[in-house]
Amino acid sequence: MLRRAAAIAGKDLRLSVGGGQGLVQAMLLGLLLIFLFSLSRPTGELVSGQAAAAIFWLASAFGLVLVFNDLFSLEEVGGCRLGLLSSPVPEHSVWLGKGLAGFLLLVLSQMVFLPAAAVFLGQDIRGSVPTLVLALIGVDWGLAALGALLGALAQGQAARESLFSVILFPLLLPVLLGGIRIFAGVFSGEPAPDEALWAAIIVAFDAVFSAAGAFLFPFLYTGEE
Amino acid sequence: MTSSASAHEMDRPPRKTSGGGEPVRTHMGDGERGDVRVEVRGVGKFFGSKLVLRGVDCAALAGEALLVVGGNGAGKTTLLKIMAGLARPSAGVVDVRVPPEACAYLGHATFQYPRLSAVANLTFWARMYGLAPSRAELEAVLERVGLARVAGEPAGTFSRGMAQRLNLARVFLIGPRLVFLDEPGTGLDPASQELLRREINGLKASGAAVVWVSHHLSADLPFAEKVLHLRDAGVAYFGPAAEFDAGGLTC
């Protein structure tokens, strides 16, 4: 199962990075958001760490929608979803492969958002870098686990992007709030007193999203045509 | 193509699907009851309140092609999808006596990623079936379907006929013992259709059972051993192809 998941992730990364669609769109949209929010800051004033963190995770969430829409659209061309379903591949391998590819693409786009936040929003990493990295991985894990699940739900729908966003964003709120809280502390250099609580919330929701993805994905992905 | 064939067949057991329920494992080993590869008993299917299949009984044997014919809307593709495990029956039982790794499905869709080359497409699908073919094996399969010279080109640049040949190469790579074909000749030129029929004979000769939905009755009938004629959601005929009276059937 893991080898097949890795093959699916490898194929998705190759097509997504090489095709210049989902990843590039996610990066451009995120950069645009960060730039536009930077215009709202009065001249000579700094954006607070909390606001900068919120903008960063908003850009990431929108990027997530584009990344997973692109990843699942790869299977719609040429009827490849039917090909996967008619093959002996466990549906869990598809979920894992898509989640892994989405996770890596999201991290890749955030490697662009972070310096953009520093430049346009006047932020610096004053807090702990390991905390930032761990929070990034933790939140991204949850985003990818849920994105891979709900991407299957929206596939083949005419209004896929709006449907995906409408369902996804409310569910993602707890991990996004956790990410914002921890990143705010890292940007300002003053860790929030409830940082450990938010880290626990992120880990808990990661577990819930992963379990939900593993359990529900086969039902969503194998829906009869 | 034999690479890792014995190992991957242990991944999943044969499949038995009953109407309205989850697929359940069958304890029947391959070949325990003669050479039946897939058997359908009393299968029915509703789409909402519309009955599209009722009481369908048939079987496909090793080394034989079962031609499924009928007018538009007769339920041919629905039956094929039920047999291939891509749709659930509302009633009845589908007993597939080969593991999923030894089943192949070839239909209208080409199952290809346009931006990947022919070789990359084949490599990906081989991995999905737990195979790890060498470059030489991939090139040999592409040579067999006449695509060796475009092995490195993106599949998106292929014509419909070339794409279907690549799809056929995917089937050969799997080395199936049970093949589901859904009007595989649609959109193909006469030369490609001839290649397809020749290769279907090759699959039968290798011991595979072929379930073949066709709209080209006169051309495909000589290549089939049995015929299943669907009409009015039921079975109008199931028996030897030599004794099949097409009558007014023009599909």
Summarize the structure.
The complex is a heterodimer of chains A (225) and B (251). By secondary structure, chain A is an all-alpha fold.
What's the rounded overall pLDDT mean of chain B? 81
Give the biggest sheet of chain A: none
Reading off the top of the CATH hierarchy, the class of one domain in chain B is best stated as: Alpha Beta
CA radius of gyration of chain B: 18 Å
Give the % helix of chain A.
over 70%
Described by strand count, sense and barrel closure, the largest sheet of chain B is: 6 strands, mixed
Structural class of chain A: mainly alpha
SSE string of chain A: HHHHHHHH
Give the end-to-end Cα distance of chain A, rounded to a whole number of Å: 25 Å
Please give the CATH architecture of one domain in chain B: 3-Layer(aba) Sandwich
How do the strands of the widest beta sheet of chain B line up side by side?
7-8-9-5-10-11
* SS-derived structural category of chain B: alpha/beta
- Mind telling me the C-alpha Rg of chain A? 18 Å
Number of domains of chain A: 1
- Please tally the helical runs of chain A, counting DSSP H or I stretches of 4 or more residues: 8
Helical run tally of chain B: 7
Query: Which chains share the greatest interface?
Result: A-B, 23 and 33 residues
Oligomer: heterodimer
Task: Identify the CATH homologous superfamily of one domain in chain B.
Answer: P-loop containing nucleotide triphosphate hydrolases
Characterization of the model:
The complex is a heterodimer of chains A (225) and B (251). Chain A has 225 residues and is mainly alpha-helical. Chain A has one domain (2-221). Chain A contains eight helices and no strands. In chain A, α3 (49-73) packs antiparallel against α7 (160-188). Chain B has helices spanning 5-8, 76-83, 118-128, 135-144, 160-174, 190-205, 217-220, and strands at residues 15-18, 23-25, 36-47, 50-61, 65-69, 91-96, 103-106, 178-182, 209-213, 226-231, 234-240. In chain B, α3 (118-128) packs across α4 (135-144), α3 packs parallel to α5 and α4 (135-144) crosses α5 (160-174). Chain B is globular, with a radius of gyration of 18 Å. Chain B has a domain at 7-98 and 177-241: P-loop containing nucleotide triphosphate hydrolases (Rossmann fold, 3-Layer(aba) Sandwich). At the A-B interface, α1 and α4 of A face β7 and α3 of B.
